[in-house]
Amino acid sequence: MKDSCYMIHLYLQKLYTFFTYFIAPPYCLFCKQSMLERQALCSTCLITVLPIVPYDFHIGRHQDVKVYAMAAYKDPLRKLIVAKHFNNAIPSWYLAKMMCEQSILQYLEFDIIVFIPLHWTRYAARGFNQAEIIAQEIGRHTGKPVIPLLIRSKKTQFQASLSVDQRAANLNNAFSLNPKYQHQIIGKKIVIIDDLFTTGSTVKAAAQLIFLHNPLKITAFVVCRVVS
Ligand SMILES: [Zn+2]
Fold this sequence. Notes:
The longest helix is centred in the N-terminal third of the chain and has 22 residues. 38% of the residues lie in helices and 19% in strands. A hairpin with a 2-residue loop joins strand 1 and strand 2. It is built from nine helices and seven strands, in the order H-H-E-E-H-H-H-E-H-H-E-H-E-E-H-E. Zinc ion (ZN) binds next to helix 2. The site of zinc ion has 8 residues, from helix 2.
């Protein structure tokens, strides 16, 4: 019975792939070249995505966050990160899948996954949160819980237009912790998920709050890190 269900599932999957191939043929999200299989990037673009070494981010006395990134912030991943158009979460789903396929993930030690939230007004305007989509996919892939620990309590300006000092000030009191979940982080290894690590002020603001509740360790896993 189990075998026949599996065969039907495989058959339906093949049928679905066959029809969607003609209705919406797969193409590379960066160079638009058509592809045989539905994935984010063609093989030519994919080989330009090179791993970078983890970064030890010192955020306070005895408080360090190791930051792992899939690659440096440049194309082709940059294009997928900025493609956050209203209600089109497809590039984000592809990024999430790529993050799950990363060998880094096997070496990351964590008990709980948290993600950098958007302010509700921005969430409403966009329809999704890229960091949350990635966190949920990593959760499914690893079987580890994703908790909505962080709350964006202040609508901040877009960080990209600000200097390092302005970014820190912009994020002052931007986050709070959801009291429903904060007891769960005591003594636990936490991984913070975000799409982009630029100066680190977002991860710093979030980690400083989380450190107040005595986690064992905090790491960050982002799609891209800006490398100067
Ligand atoms: Zn391509």
